[in-house]
C-alpha cells in the first residue's frame, strides 16, 4: 500500500497533467488506517515519506506527508463511524497545521521563499494574460496589480489559508469517495492476523507429535466457532487425510496445525511449529503457481534457505528425483505443468527437512494424472522420512490412501463414512434433446502469447472444432494444454492470433455475451455485496427483481437468498449465483472452466445435476474439467487437448 501511495505521489509531482494522482495517494493509506492500528499507518507513512524524498524531492515528500495525515483522518473516521462534521473539523485542523508549517518553512528558507514568490507572481500574470483576451485590458491590468501587491505583501496569509482550505477539501472529498469502499472492507472477516506481541522463539522446532484437546477457533466478528471443540493427535510416520464439506473447518484446522493460536482449548507440542524453518513445518497450497519463486527448478528448491542449511547440488538432484523430477534442475519453472509445479513444491518443502507437511487442497487445480502422482508421493513421504503429512481433500480416492481419516462437520469431528465422498455421476432420467445444427465453429484456431517478443509461448495450434446447438461438449487435457485459452477464445474475450472462431457467421469477439464464460474461481466473478445486486449488475440495467427470481429458480436456489451476502454463501452456492448472473443475460452458449473445482462431493453432485438440467432446457454447454467421471451424465461428446493440439474426438462413452 505504501509503495502504491509513493508511486501516485511521485508521478503526480513529475508529470504536470497527473497532479490529481497526488490526491489518489490518500486511497491506499486510508485502507491501512481503516484496517489497522494508527501505528501501522505511522510506520507506512514514514517509510513512504522517506522514499518519496529520495525519488521526487522535498515537494513530493511533503505531499506524501499530507496524504498520510488525511488518510489517517479518513480511515479512522470510517472505522469509528464518524460523520461529515467530524471529518471536516479534523481536516481543517490538519489543514491549519499544514498551512502553518508551510509558512514557517518559507520564513526560515529565504531562497525557497524568493523562488516561491517569483513563481507566484509569474503564475498570476500568466493567468491575467489569458483572461485579458476576454476582458478589457485596463481592468485586468488594475486587478492584477492589486492582487500581485496583496499576494507579495501578505503571502503568509495566502499560503496559510490556501494550505488549510486545500487540505480540508481533499480530506472531505476523500472521505466522501472512500467511505462506502472502506466500510465494505471493514465488514470482511480478517484471517491470519499477526498477534499483538510476537514471541521470537529460538528453540528448535518440533511440530509433531501434536495433541489438540477441546480446541476451538472463531474468526473475528463471527458469531459461531469455525472449528471445534476438537480433539486430535498427529504423530510422525502417519499420512492423515482431513475431509469434510465446504466450510466445515478443514482449512481452519490446517492453520491451527501450522501455528495459529486457537480461541479455546489446548494445543500441546514439544516445541514450536517453525513454519518455513528447517526441521519445522511446511505447507503446500491449492494453487501451484502461487508458491513457486525461483526461475529455475533447482533455484526454487533452495529458495529462502539460509546458506548454512542449503543442500548441495547433489542433494537437490536427489530431492528432485524423489518427487519424480529427475534431471529437471536446469529447466525454467514457467515450463512446468500444474502437477509438476506441485511436485516441485514438495521438493522445496523436503529441502527444509520438515517434521510436519500440510497440503491444503493441493490436488484441486491439477489434472487426474497429476493428482494420482502427487497423492502417491505424499502418502509415501511418512515412510521415507521421520515426518507427518496432513492432506486436506475432497476426493475419496485420495482419502483411501491415508493411514487416518479425519472428517469434519460444522467444525466438529464425526465418524467417517467413505460413501459420503462418492463422486458417482448424477443419474438423470429425462433424455437430452438431440444436438441441432452447428452453432459455434472454430477453424484453424491458434494462439501465441507474446508472439512478437522473446518469450513467445504457443497455447493452441490449428484447432478445428464445431459445437452443435444443445450438446454438452466436454474438453479435457492436462495442465497447460490450452483449455482455458480455448475457453476465452470461445467466449470472445481473447481473439485468436490465427484462424477464426465464429457464432452464426460472426466472430465471437464482436458479440461478447452471446457466449458466456464461467470462471474457474466463482468468487472472482461475484463483484457485488448481495446475491440480487450481483445478478442485476451482471444482467445490466434492464434486469429487475422478477428476472432475479427467475434465474434463482433456474439454478435451483431459494428466492430468499436474493438478499444474502455473497461472503455468507457456500462454494456450491457461489457457483450457482455466478451461473445465475450469466444466465440472466440469456446466452446462447455457456462455457464453464472447471465448474467443480474446490467443491465438496455434495457440491459437485449438485452442480452436475444443475448442468444436466440446463442442457435439457436446450442450452449448449462447453465444459472444461478434470472431473470426467462426475460429468459423464452431462456430456454428449469429449475432445482432448494435448499441448495445444486437438486430439481425436470421442463419443460420450469413450475417452481416448
Q: How would you portray this structure in words?
A:
With 656 residues, this protein is α/β, with parallel strands linked by helices. It has three domains: 186 residues, Arp2/3 complex 21 kDa subunit ARPC3, CATH 1.10.1760; 212 residues, Rossmann fold (3-Layer(aba) Sandwich); 214 residues, 3-Layer(aba) Sandwich (Rossmann fold), CATH 3.40.50. Helix content is 43%, strand content 17%. The strands form four sheets. Strands 12, 15, 16, 17, 18, 19 and 20 form a seven-stranded mixed beta sheet that branches. A six-stranded mixed beta sheet has the order 5-6-7-3-8-9, sandwiched between helices. It has a four-stranded antiparallel beta sheet with strand order 11-10-13-14, covered by helices on one side. Helix 21 links the parallel strand 16 and strand 17. The longest helix has 33 residues. The two termini are 50 Å apart. About 2% of the residues have low confidence.
Secondary-structure blueprint:
Layout: H1 2-14, H2 21-24, H3 26-35, H4 38-56, H5 58-79, H6 84-108, H7 110-132, H8 137-153, H9 155-187, E1 210-217, E2 227-234, E3 239-244, H10 250-257, E4 264-269, E5 281-284, H11 297-302, H12 313-322, H13 338-350, E6 356-360, H14 368-384, E7 388-392, H15 396-399, E8 404-409, E9 412-414, E10 438-449, E11 457-468, E12 472-477, H16 483-490, E13 498-503, E14 506-507, E15 515-518, H17 522-525, H18 531-539, H19 545-554, H20 571-583, E16 589-593, H21 601-616, E17 620-624, E18 637-642, E19 645-646, E20 650-651
Parallel strand pairs: 3-7, 3-8, 5-6, 6-7, 12-17, 12-18, 15-16, 16-17
Antiparallel strand pairs: 1-2, 1-4, 8-9, 10-11, 10-13, 13-14, 18-19, 18-20
